[in-house]
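Q&A log
Question type: sequence-to-structure
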Amino acid sequence: MNIGQKIPQISLPAVNGSQFDTTSLLGKKYLLTFFRFATCPFCNMRMAELVQLKKELGDNFEIVAIFQSEMEHLKKHSNKHFANFPILADPKKQYYEMFDVNNSLSGMFKGMIMRMPTVIKGMSRGYIPLEISKRLLIMPLSLLVDEQGIIQSVYQGKDEGDHLPLDRVITFSAQLA
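Response status: OK
Response body:
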């Protein structure tokens, strides 16, 4: 996906039991972010930050989180966040492939070594990555999308804990249409 491109329609099941569709966001700015899996310490620490940020950004800005996890597993672990935004399951990587979400062995190791305090903090909160699978290699991807559904920013993480800086999300949400 590139800046200036219209975002393709995304339709996935949400942890609240609904079927989410990005067409419901027309007229709103939003952050679309692809995470690894439900027990990823990096992902869950970022989710905690996004829950707090959403409170500051209000109702005219949305956050959409996508995990490559089975729905039941995602429900079990995402309920700790009390998120007031859609958390979606894409276990078959349909949209990960469509959006060309990167995988990186070196990014996985770099994140584990360079961001060890985040791993420890996440694991102390119960996010223990017990699974060994290719999902460990997924690098975060974040897109900022305007009210017309046009991608305004694409941020591909260089390691498993490298996410779009929150100040960029705040600045984007405050910009006038």
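Response note: Strands lie at 11-13, 19-21, 29-34, 61-67, 87-89, 141-145, 151-156.
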